[in-house]
Each structure stands twice: as structure tokens, then as C-alpha cells.
Amino acid sequence: MKKDIIELNNIWVSYPEHSDNPIKQLISKDKKQFWALKGLDFTVKKGEVLGIIGRNGSGKSTLLKLMSGLIEPDKGDYHVEGKRPMLLSLGAGFQPELSGIENIYLNALLLGNRKKKIDDNLESIIEFSELDDFIYKPVRTYSSGMKARLAFSTAIMLDPEILLIDEVLGVGDSAFQKKCKDAILEKIQQERTVILVTHSSGLVKQICDRVVWIHRGEQKAVGETKEIVDQYDEFMKAKRK
């Protein structure tokens, strides 16, 4: 039986609610909080592919930030066994004035990779990204698709034990999307742990072992992929009526 390598126990994450009026912000004694995540409670097994689904604003990206260590919970316990998961999010952490190569090193080092490992993988990262000479230009000159190429290539070629993917598969041309999908499937075959946020029900059904459905920050359901995705699709259809 596969062991649990990620555990979330009654996780709550909040953000301050700011008034648009700066004077009110200064004098108000009532500091309201918006709870982005409310009482999440589930585990992820080694080698599992877990899908995270939910409407926009449901807390999915906040959850991935928590799991990657970028933010801490207000309440509850979060535990990861082994190396911190690598977050693959569109343009996450990119410094716009630095070149593509410089951002590869910066992001990879911040995620705990040694310089030698980056050196050894740099050529493969650049080749996979297909950015050609743009790899030497500032990231501020990149399109959203180019940023996605750089982010995905850096994460996938450094071969993390746990990969967190936030919607980047929907960016870029169809040929590169297929290339990314194939690379993820290869990691899955190598029993890497993958946690995927996407609006593609078809992709979730194809590659995910289980699914967590989040609605307005709350854990609405966790379970077998087809069952949970079908429930979510019915819920979304009812909302559109």
C-alpha cells in the first residue's frame, strides 16, 4: 500500500479584507478577514495523481501556494514528507528584469536545488522550452505563453518528487500543450506525485487517481475521479441555468 506523503488537517487560510478607502483602512479597528480555505482535511499518497477542481475563486491556487510552502495556514496542521513540492504556476516568482536563464537559476535555487543540478539540466530546460534566443531576453518581454513554457520547462526537467501544477496546460499552442501533457504522463509512469489544478474535466478523468472538489474555500467532496467530476459537472450545469 502506498504511504501518505502529504497531510492536511483542518487547514484554514485567511487574507485581510481591505477597504478601498485608505483613510478607513488606517482608522478602522475592525480588521475583517476573508477565509480563502476553511477546514480542509485530506491526504496525498506517494505516486498519486490528485486533481483539484472548483469554480474560479474557490481557493484552488491558495491551496497550491500552501502546499508549496509559499504561505502558512492560520489554523490546522500541514505536513510534507521529503522535499518541498515544486509549484508550477504561470509566471510564479519570475523577476521581469532578469533574463529567462537568470530566472531559471533563481527559481530553481529558491526551491532548494543545487547549482550543479541546474547546470547539468540547463540545456535540457532551454531545449524543452523552445524559447530559442528569447531565453537571453528579460522576462518582461515574454508573452503569457512564453512564461508558461519557461515555468513548465524549469519544473519538469528538474524532476521534482512532488509537482504542483496550476492551470498552465491551457496556455500556449496545441503542440506545446501536448508536449507538456506527455511529460507529465512520463512523470506519472515514474510514480512521481502530481497535484493538478485544471478546468479540464477530460484531463482530470484521464490522469487523476482521486479528486478534491473545493467550493468557496470549503472541501465539498473528495473521492474517486469519475464520481466527483460527474458531481461537479452536474453542479456547474445547474449553476448555468
TrEMBL record:
GO terms for molecular function: ABC-type transporter activity; ATP binding; ATP hydrolysis activity. SUPFAM superfamilies: P-loop containing nucleoside triphosphate hydrolases. Gene3D superfamilies: P-loop containing nucleotide triphosphate hydrolases. PROSITE patterns: ABC_TRANSPORTER_1, ABC_TRANSPORTER_2. Keywords: ATP-binding, Nucleotide-binding, Translocase, Transport. Pfam families: ABC_tran (PF00005). GO terms for cellular component: membrane. InterPro entries: AAA+_ATPase, ABC_transporter-like_ATP-bd, ABC_transporter-like_CS, ABC_transpr_TagH-like, Bact_Polysacc_Export_ATP-bd, P-loop_NTPase. Belongs to the ABC transporter superfamily. This is Uncharacterized protein. It comes from Guptibacillus hwajinpoensis. The lineage of its organism: Bacteria, Bacillati, Bacillota, Bacilli, Bacillales.
